[in-house]
Amino acid sequence: MSKKKAIFIALAALIVASLGLLHVNFPLPYVFNVMVRQSPDYYDFQVFPASSIAPAERASELPVAPDPRVMSALESHPKIDDVDSFVTSTETTAFLVAHNGQLVFERYGLGHDDNSVENSFSVSKALTSALIGLAAEDGVLALGDPITGHLPELGERDARFSQIKVDNLLGMTSGLAYSRKIKFPIVNNDDPLVYYHPNLASVVLARTEIESAPGPFKYNNYNTPLLGLILKRTTGLSVSEYFEQRVWRPMGAAQPAGWTTDKAGFERMESGFHARARDLARFGLLYLNQGRTGERQVLPEAWVNASTTPDKHIELDSYDGRRWAYKAGWWIVPRPEGRPDYCAIGHFGQFIYISPQFKTVFVRNGPGRGEWGDRDWTALFYYLAEALTQRPE
């Protein structure tokens, strides 16, 4: 046997042995996904199991009325030389602008069109927020409920879980430990566990730990699956069923959507929702219109306002020098006066961005961002919303 072949066999044996040891504590498919797939991919929703969410029998109106002011504003932006090149270089699959209830700009890239399904990643958290507001209106839960009232397994492990309220999970102020640092052996890290584990409910019920008393903001992907479990137990429906019945169909979605699930059928609450870009715009318009679609009140108006208005005691330093905030799944972007803008942001630059003052909604999707970070995109939306109002028609 040659020396190279012997080394290869030894390495292969070591890998097999390592996988065997890891399989003792983690399911082998999970270990495989973490080791082979590694980082999330934009098109994971095409290979993960997923629920199906039916559209409305009749779609709500979304008139297409191209407005040349959008193109003019884009072409005037100092970082954009050519709109087509911009869409390509930023790996954008969908970029939509709705203004005054009309779809005034729509551009697709990388072979996508208005019938293509787009991923949302953490934009899913804003959808979860809408469901919590509805469940509170239905009287099956309250924001001030200790989570142990709905998830007693947590209290049995550590009595301090009773200090955490539903609202703490929603606002990322739970005090739960969560690390985004990836350390060997990788499979026991928080991000992979939430994204790949085949039994997400068991992970969040058995592995979550208290880091501090509730109060300080810390972005944490354990919070949203816990909210999903609470929704499932209090409504008696899966999250997808509840979302279909109370949000997707009532708001007039034109196309079906989906929510990726674990092997047990539980939704990956923090990242799994996927839909057509136009229907994502409809969801943004639902919030812009205070929870209404046409004459129908789909979401409680009080919830829309409360969940997008920052608490004065929770402010975050943003990378652009302004004082941002986070509230119930939404990042809140201040303006000098009047109502702030707010947005749901997902991995790789997924956005639903809403500017109430300027009556504008933006949707952006794509498997990458090029050199454009979240800061650049939010600054662009902020600028375009003003430009649509200030430029002559």
- What sequence of helices (H) and strands (E) makes up the elements? HHEHHEEEHHHHHHHEEHEEHEEEEEEH
Q: What number is the mean pLDDT?
A: 91
Summarize the biggest pleated sheet: 8 strands, antiparallel
Shape, principal axes of CA atoms: globular
Helix content range: 25-40%
Beta-strand percentage range: 15-25%
Oligomer: single chain
Q: How many β-strand stretches?
A: 14
Q: Helical segment tally? A: 14
Radius of gyration: 22 Å
* Low-confidence region ranges: 9-14, 19-24
Helix/sheet category = alpha+beta
End-to-end C-alpha gap: 78 Å
What topology, given as strand order, has the largest sheet? 3-2-14-13-12-11-10-9
Question: Could you characterize the architecture of this molecule?
Answer:
This protein has helices at residues 3-25, 28-37, 68-76, 83-89, 124-138, 152-157, 166-170, 190-196, 200-206, 223-235, 239-248, 277-288, 301-307, 374-390, and strands at residues 50-53, 94-99, 102-108, 117-119, 257-260, 273-276, 292-293, 296-297, 316-317, 323-327, 330-333, 341-346, 350-355, 360-365. It is α+β, with helices and mostly antiparallel strands and 393 residues long. The protein has a domain at 1-37. It has an eight-stranded antiparallel beta sheet, sandwiched between helices. It has a four-stranded antiparallel beta sheet with strand order 1-5-6-4. β13 and β14 form a beta hairpin.
